[in-house]
Amino acid sequence: MILGLYNYWIVVVLMMIGLYIIIAHGNLIKKIVGLNIFQTSVFIFYISIGNVEGGTAPIWGEGITLYSNPLPHVLILTAIVVGIATTALGLALAVRLKEAYGSIEEDDIQAMDDQKTDNKHC
Amino acid sequence: METILSISSALCLLIGSFLCLSGGVGILRFPDFYTRMHAVGVTDTLAAAMILIGLMLQGPEWIAILKLIMILLMTLFISPTASHALAQAAIRNSLWPLIDTQQETAEEKSHRTPS
Amino acid sequence: MRHTISLSIGLLLFWLLNSGHYTLMILSLCVVSIVIVLTIVHKMDVVDHEAQPVHLSRKFPAYSLWLSKEIVLSNVTVVKHIWLGNESLSPTLTTLKASQITDMGKVIYASSITLTPGTIALDLVGDRIMVHSLLRDNITALESGEMDRRVSRLEAQC
Amino acid sequence: MLAHLPILQVIVPLLAAPTCLILRKPSLVWLFTLLASASAFVISILLLQQVMAEGTLIYELGGWSAPWGIEYRIDKLNAFLALIISGVSTVVLLAAHTSLEKEIPQDRQTLFYILYLLSLTGMLGIVTTGDAFNVFVFLEISSLSAYALIALGKDRRALWASFQYLIMGTIGATFILIGIGLMYQMTGTLNMADLASRLPEVPQSRTLFTAYAFFIVGVCLKLALFPLHLWLPNAYAYAPSIVTAFFAATSTKVAIYLLIRFTFSVFGVEFSFSVLPLETLFLALGLLGIFVASTTAIYQNNVKHVFAYSSVAQIGYMIVGFSMATSAGLTATLLHLFNHALMKSALFLALGAVVYRIGSAELNDFRGLGRQMPLTMTAIVIGGLSLIGIPLTVGFVSKWVLVVAAIENGWWPVAALILLGSLLAVVYVWRIVETAYFKTPEPGRKPVKEAPITFLAPVWILVSANIYFGIDTRLSVEVAQAAAESLFGVSP
Amino acid sequence: MFAVVMLSGIYGLLSASFFVVMDAVDVAFTEASVGAGISTLLMLTAVAMTGRTEHVTRHKPYLAFAVVFVTGCLLIYGTLDMPYFGSPDAPSHQHVAPRYINDSMQETGMPNMVTSVLASYRGFDTFGEVTVIFTAGIGVLALLSVVRGRESDAEIETLNDSMHEQYLILRIVIKMLIPFILLYAFYVQFHGDFGPGGGFQAGVIFASAIILYVMLFGLGTARRVINQSFIQILSAIGVLIYGCVGLVSILNGGSFLDYSVLSDDALAGQHLGILLIELGVGCTVASVMIIIFFKFAERNEYIQSKNGKST
Amino acid sequence: MLIAATLAILVVMILAIIRGVLGPTLYDRILAVNMFGTKTVLLISLLGFVMGRPEFLDIAMVYALINFVSVICILRYSDAFGFKPQEKDS
Q1: pLDDT tens sequence across D96-114
Q2: C158 CB neighbour count, 10 Å cutoff
Q3: How far apart are CA C155 and CA C55, in angstroms?
Q4: Which residues make beta-bridge pairs with D302?
Q5: Could you report the per-residue pLDDT of E279-291, keeping only the tens digit for each?
Q6: Which pTM does this prediction carry?
Q7: Nearest CA in chain E to A84
Q8: Residue C87 and residue C33 share a domain
Q9: Domains in chain A, please, with CATH?
Q10: Smallest Cβ distance to D62: which of E82, E145, E255?
């Protein structure tokens, strides 16, 4: 049954939505939102890998024999932290960009930069 | 005893779900922001309480019951505060509610003129 | 001092009820944590009669029972009107006077108003509470002042 | 203590970073950073000696044995890379204190050093670890600090460059993460050695193919391989000079290391080169990179931009060597990796000295500098010659090896194209030389003094290394050869 | 823009619920506090600082669409050979994981396998994670810190009074809540061995209590209560605690982060080591989150004052 | 019964999202998010029971907390910057 993979496909679609937002949107904050969605979807992907049919949370309990795989959980915990670190830094950069250029639109910033280079003024 | 517990638990959950759904319908149907808040109020108070009580009656270990009670208390404690804060912010930023026009008094009219 | 003690007891209870593990190790960590929290909280200056309303504790259970009854009743009304549709609504905005003396009393009053579906306290400045209600009747009920009286009585106890 | 060297390599700079925050005073922090970096350098020398003498070192972190715990596995390639990174970092740091005076406000200097150390940690972590997921973690340490370091540049365009890098870098890292996830899914392990032994047993290859593809694309984003290089020139041009000198020499090298490690050790040559048309793909991209980037470099007006584009071109050379999938080609790649680190750090550091004096890196402002800053300009000229590949410089050695490898492979046209690429380098280097030596400065510009000794010393250390390793090629070639051969499983 | 940020917050909440369904309680815990909490919060702050307007015009998104389409197809293609979702005999559950599931209780004494893997088996990854968060803290500090003049106490007092008037209900409720949130953070910190939780989650919860305080009492008051340089040093100390546990185990003859040698009894050593490193994680995470939030808020204040002067 | 309750809550969550997307004002959106958060608390508690391991209620507690913190934050910001409800929100 090929449908046994449906879970992964949903995640892939989510991932691609995130990726699309990053590439296609010019607004810097939206790009970071997209980045977040993209990363979160990858987390979901990992957690799906760790899932075991009929298993329970990997915390030892009386009389439970089947647990889900704890390793992806650990990896994702780390990855979530990495994600928030990137988000924080990205937002800090966006704030500084707004101060420096007065805009957080990719096009505006790019246009201002090009202009500056044309004038050869540094 | 067992059956009484499970029946009453199921009943609580059922009522809770119904209230919850009503609240959900309310938030879609009601005409403006303030009226929608009332609908949310339903789901936050009685519906939450019913569901949580229903869970308590499922007869888990006492520690889970205690935690459920704590969640319930917290919901009851936090939700009016959050709604109040929300309403306060809305009214201070001059979002005026739809008022039942037939019964509108002179005092309320004065409210609507932006100050 | 009174408030610090009551807060520590509250915190201790909170920990013990949550924890479920009563080894020496965890208990000593519990004590350490509480001491740290108390230090921080004192530095923040948030421990006072407002945050620790010990003086209300005796009368509170009775009030909360009454409040629960009110909540259930008003829930039923609101749900009825949700299914009845928008035509049945008569949203109203009024300003009520809160007769409580202390800030704490006013807050309890305002929160109780919000907690009962159908009425929301929009703003609380001085002793004026701005209330929005779903139905005309809700306001009439509030204006009759039963809740106001009960809260005042609650506060008057100390 | 010798047994703990592999971990100390990473831990020393890592722990030095938070300690800096406690020390606070910038000059003290600078000394401390220098000390930490120097000890990392010493450790890497010791490690390289140990590895050359005894073979691969294995260090089990936390006392858990390999696939369960994280393992450090130092072979010749790792030790070689660690040596390059910590060495360049130490020399560059010598000039940092002077350079920062003019480029970064007093209250940020401590933070700068902390970020610098963290970035060093990240790179060292990537090259020493033997665990696939650990690579991702350290990759993020190095990239996050890189974003922040680049954004510290004075020009507001530094912010924009940093943001672009952040977006590209994070997409790259997430792709790598997906790749690692797929590998884990198919093998159940994260340890590289274990992966290498289990991957051939996995029957289906569609998932593995995807895993490899994602990993490669992710790494190539970090690597600034030709069509994905857009973030690099601006990032290098607007970052503080010290950062540029350090990154130009190291950060893309780390990405190349990852590419080599996963292609050759983890997936194995047969697999990698059979599932993807790597040979043609990388050859084409590498050559295109060389030509497009070199041509763009010719038209740049900012000298930092010129050398940044030249870096993209040099990456092209390394990729060409890589695409041959032979031991000789790989040796050329590794050798060029080492030599390019020497050239670019020397060049960018010398540029830093110029920026320190005249406050800009625009080509027009270079007029007359040949006479006013003779030592610095000589260093730039020697670096430029090395970039072109004139005999007696390191650039010649690696190009020679590369051309020989191409010919051995029977790729005559490629060899010719490589030589042609060098001609383009002549053009852009000549433009700088011409401006600096044969044009008179704008009238009315104040005469410029020679750079301070704190700048000249590290610049000349690097320049002499450029010449020394150009003449005495035993050390670099021997190590590169040994590393390349060990990757192909041939003992010399 | 607000809508976008909020939807991403909702996405965080949803994915966290999904993690619960997938048995990843620890991850759900973290995602709840991070994805739905801190990151949404930071985004809101950033949106508030950069403005909500946005260009509608976009140049052709065909290229983006093509890239996304190709990547998506590649991934779908890659999943075709994957073991079915939830299948217990997938290779990922066969090789390394069984040891964690079966033996971690004997080897580390932790009922929560995630904690034992996180802190002991793969303790070095976690060290890297702490460093990442530390790096982010330093990076934000380097990007956003501003030089401030001293504020007078009187100013803060008047601000406080107006706050008191305006947000009576919020103020009282939050005053009541803060001690409990703080204690809850400690509870989560120390119960990571038994249930979901641990240093990272605790740090975030702790920071959220402080953020709540800042929100309500204003930056000025908060700065008086929370000494900024102390917080910065605390974030460094967290990393150092972690590293020093590793160094001590080297000195005791084990390898880096080998907790078994910390005490005569290997299990007790593991316990002690995990407790200490979780403490280090908690320290760093809490202080870095506070730093990040403070820097954003201060920058905001700074921009506002600058704008105020120019107009 | 547990399943039924879970489904009901999921439906309500979807309704909340619809309201969040529809808006029309900023406050409607915040309201929807807040409601979504409280429903998540309930959902998590329920899920713990559905899956037979009810000891993980801590997560629900954290949700309640975080939800509160973020709502307060949203409000403080919307207050401080005086976002007018008439403003179009993108």
Answers
A1: 888 888 888 888 889 999 9
A2: 13
A3: 8
A4: D362
A5: 999 999 999 999 9
A6: 0.91
A7: E39
A8: no
A9: 3-53+70-121 (1.10.287.3510)
A10: E255
